[in-house]
């Protein structure tokens, strides 16, 4: 792949080694040194090139996985580096965000990073496998909108929530026990969360050694809210849109889109890094992701794009799920934008090669995650509404969150992940169809019937005994395989 990045000459390698030594010194940085990154594009460029070259070299030298899998990872890492640089450049004129990040967030996170390996190794010694990399928690189901097809079935009548004490303990445990410093906050609408007179901002301030990605509908982000986000410094909002105004208002309500554009303007003014969350349905899949859409939101300040293909849970239905053909087109557009233009775009279904397949249930091979909802249900994934336990009950008897990782349900999923991804040197599964819940429903149904986890709501319970739902899901999987199966073999396996 010389066309991707020209291998350096010997003198260039010497320079890169010198740069690498300089970069290693940045790991133990002072606030003053961190602050320099905001004003010195050349220094940022040097750091970025070190990361980029290191990633490229390690990608091609790692022979265990197909070459194209490793190149996919290189492209997305290069895009991530570009997004980080853009975030710093955007924030350089924001004294509030800059001061908070430099003096509070960065030192706390670097301090936690230094302890990461020690904490992960201690976990591995205790459990015999590595810890999850992060988790997603929805502290409240309450929401000021009532969106069509909402996976959480949230609205203004939903008042379920976790206590602040429990959420605080969750973050502390996963940081200290797992060596994890990245946390995703979902909902409901996180900016409406309040417990014990505390909010999401109190959580972020208490855990400045974590960086929080918060999914939000954006309607509550006015100038004052944007300033609060700048002051806390370790939350990046991912604002939900469905395309442009017509598509967004059709799903989320008239006037929502204008509020979203206003929110982005306020965030940009405060230097707060933000991105866009896109739910792809049969009706808007032609836009997600399109070059025009990505360029449009990038110009408004968006640094990253998360794509969620609608799942038939909550208020979702099979009628809204993108077709197999639409999903294939989305896959091709996404990777072209990542490779050609270094846009950071993530899709949990079409981006399976970026994570070596499914990462749910804490995946013991590393890089895994799990989900905790507003009622305390601990599930393998945001889109897998069956729980291995309840965090409220676990903490009430002074247990630990990590217990669920060795529950029959989680262990069965972990075993499926292991068998599906590789068996020895043979690839037994297709990493562009990574999801047991969405892409291999017959398999997940077998696991559910064997391990009997608790459905998180009535819809999930009804799905277990609905033959029409089972038939529709399995048929969809067969349609996916006819398209993605040959592509996986031709594009990925032939290049190993």
Folded structure, characterized:
With 496 residues, the protein is of the alpha/beta class. The protein is built from 17 helices and 12 strands. It has a 10-stranded mixed beta sheet. α5 crosses α8 and α8 (223-232) packs across α10. The chain is globular. The model is unreliable at 1-27 (pLDDT under 50).
Write the layout of secondary structure elements.
Elements: H1 10-26, H2 31-39, H3 41-61, H4 67-91, H5 95-127, E1 134-137, H6 164-178, E2 182-185, H7 200-206, E3 211-216, H8 223-232, E4 235-241, H9 245-252, H10 256-270, E5 275-280, H11 291-299, E6 305-309, H12 324-341, E7 345-347, E8 369-372, E9 377-379, E10 386-387, E11 389-390, H13 391-396, H14 408-421, H15 441-451, E12 454-455, H16 458-464, H17 467-492
Parallel strand pairs: 1-2, 1-8, 2-3, 3-4, 4-5, 5-6, 6-7
Antiparallel strand pairs: 8-9, 9-11, 10-12
Helix pairs in contact: 2-5, 3-4, 4-12, 5-6, 5-8, 8-10, 12-17, 14-15
Query: What pattern of helices and strands is seen along the backbone?
Result: HHHHHEHEHEHEHHEHEHEEEEEHHHEHH
The assembly state of the depicted protein chains is single chain
The count of strands amounts to 12
Helix content: 40-55%
The 3D shape can be described as: globular
